[in-house]
UniProtKB/TrEMBL annotation:
This is Reverse transcriptase domain-containing protein.
Amino acid sequence: MLPLGNIIKKHNIDFHSYADDTQLYISVEPNKTTALQSLTSCLSAVTHWMSNNFLKLNENKTELLLIGPKDKREALLPSLGNLNQYVREQVTSLGVILDSDLSLKPHINKVTKTAYFHLRNIAKVRPFLTKPDAEKLVHAFITSRLDYCNALFTGLPKKSIEKLQLIQNSAARLLTKTRKREHITPVLAELHWLPVSYRIDFKVLLLVFKAVNGLAPCYIVDALSSYTPARALRSADAGLLRIPDAPPKRIGESAFSYYAPNRWNALPQHIRKAESIDIFKRQLKTYLFNQAYT
């Protein structure tokens, strides 16, 4: 992947490379198409390099996703030229379905459909399983899907989070054989399961802890910065993060660079100053559990 990386860098395009996938990122306005020209030139250079090395770009798996307001997306289409053939309404990136509005509705719908499919299968064998064995199945087939890349769910509409919460509620009822008319909150507390919204915060705060301690990728570290008071204050050594003066446009308060510092600074100092990831995770779960159920 090194030669490809060098080619892409020459065209000043941001990218991520994976085992069998390379993603390019550009920011462009409908009336300023210089970035599009760079993208077209980059793809031509990549195709030429692959041809010289007896390789071929798989056009069937080449996809282009336009992210932004609908009017700007539509205004940009005429400028895409040959790239129009690759435009998709949604694409899958590392198992997450991304759409042009970044609503994640298609992804949540897929998670919901898959989770209930597995819940029905688990329900068929539940009478023959002990509770610990049934819980293992629930975590393997349900919880893992609710937690996968759930840091992306920050700022989503309450309705979207509620769809995921209903999945967790159904899993808890199946596991504990709780009837539908019985209140589910005490059951979740007894299982020591964090509600979905708190699981999202748990993942976000874990990413922040890793970033603060040099354990996260650079693109996450670069999104955060330490808070430095103008004069000597106790807060200078409190492990706080600087909160941007205003949330980014469109994305608003759900942006990681805005949402994460707010949640991090609200934590007790002893949690922010945890000596290891294991200690941090244990203390953080206890803290969020108390917030959820007390």
